[in-house]
Amino acid sequence: MPREKISKGFALNLQRLLAGEPVNAGAFGNKRQLKKLEELRAVVRRVTGRNRAVCFCPDPSALRSVLQLHFGIHDLTAYLNLLEKDHADGEESLRATTSTKTLRRRSLQGFFIKGFGTDIRIGKTRLDNLPDGVEYFVRDHSVLKLSSMALIVGVENPECFVKADRLLDLFPQKAVVLVLRYHSNSPVEWLKSIPNDYLHFGDFDPAGIAIYCNEYRFVLGEKRCRFLVPDGIGEQIRKYGDSALFDRQRQLWPPKQPGEERALAELIATMEQCGKGLEQEWLLRGEV
Q1: How many Cβ atoms sit within 10 Å of the Cβ of residue 230?
Q2: How far apart are CA 187 and CA 123, in angstroms?
Q3: Three-class SS of residue 20?
Q4: Are residues 139 and 234 in the same domain?
Q5: Euclidean distance between CA atoms 271 and 190, whole angstroms
Q6: Quick one: DSSP state of residue 217?
Q7: CATH no. for residue 62?
Q8: Which residue of 23, 85, 135, 249 has the lowest C-beta tally within 10 Å?
Q9: Is-contact 240 278, C-beta < 8 A?
Q10: Sorting pLDDT into bands at 50, 70 and 90, what band is 213?
Q11: Dist CA 265 CA 271 (whole Å)
Q12: What is the pLDDT of residue 96?
């Protein structure tokens, strides 16, 4: 999951919200990040006058969970202390966030990519298959050339990306290009520049569905996006799903309406019914 850095001023205002204090919406500065918190129901906006609004935090635990899931911030106070320092060691950074590279780079500036049943080219140069343990990394997506018929599959988990050859039967066609989204800059900008259809291979939990709905389908549109729902995944969630995983992400539930995606609607209904989630690594067991 891509992780953004929030500014010191934005973090200070979040700290005020966590303390129960209302904060003027205009004080946050970053309208896009504030809108994201509102969409995730971690922050509530109330209009108080013409062109004026204040923000509240109805559930501090929900806001803390969203900060952890979407921004990698485990402890907002520790994060602010980290921003005060010119240099921070890995241990300090890890206490505040999920990354030991917090102040240097919050995410990779690009993404890993691999193809099956189709060519990937850099200009006129075809990328050859690499030996096990080596993957291609793309920093400038403008140089990528691929067939418009190839299906782009966004993969959340590194293990599933590395062992993708064991999961190819899950995809609806042979020609696929896999993109690793974990700790990468979102490939949405690249996807916006090409006509290919997109299949979102995420975790089967509230966060996985929220990422798809808010960051991919919302931007790319329903006609070219689908959430991967393997046959039999509902039964696997009932049997082996993790209720604690679902509870930790409950503030992200229910997700936005799945539109015409019937399979996604059925997945959401199953998760709602049993109150469980399942991470995508489970599919490597081959039981679906």
Answers
A1: 18
A2: 19
A3: coil
A4: yes
A5: 31
A6: I
A7: 1.10.10
A8: 85
A9: yes
A10: confident
A11: 10
A12: 43
Is 226 found in the same domain as 126?
yes
Dihedral (CA of 127, 192, 197, 207) sign: positive
Instruction: Give the span between the Cα atoms of 65 and 67, in whole angstroms.
Output: 5
**Element of type H or E holding 38:** helix 31-39
The residues, ordered by sequence, that sit 6+ positions from 123 with a Cβ below 8 Å of its Cβ are 143, 145
Q: So what's the pLDDT on residue 59? A: 80
Token pair for residue 236?
Answer: 């696997």
Beta strand pairing call for 225-227 and 136-138: unpaired
How do residues 87-132 score in pLDDT, each as one tens digit? 444 434 444 444 433 333 345 678 999 999 999 998 889 988 777 7
Helix (H, G, I), strand (E, B) or coil at 200: strand
Q: Using CA atoms, how far apart are residues 218 and 225, in angstroms rounded to an integer?
A: 10
Given the DSSP bridges, would you call strands 198-201 and 225-227 parallel, antiparallel or unpaired? Answer: parallel
Unique residue bearing structure tokens 């969970």: 65
- Asked, for residue 135, whether it belongs to a domain, the answer is yes
Indicate yes or no: pTM above 0.70: no
Which of 131-140, 184-193, 231-240 ranks highest by mean pLDDT? 231-240
The last residue of one of the domains, among 39, 64, 96, is 96
Among 43-52, 87-96, 185-194, where is mean pLDDT lowest? Answer: 87-96
Q: Are residues 151 and 228 in the same domain?
A: yes
Per the omega criterion (within 30 degrees of 0), is the bond before 254 cis?
yes
Helices (H), 42-179: 60-71, 76-84, 90-96, 158-162
- Angle between helix 31-39 and 60-71 (nearest 10): 120
Residue 3 lies in a domain: no
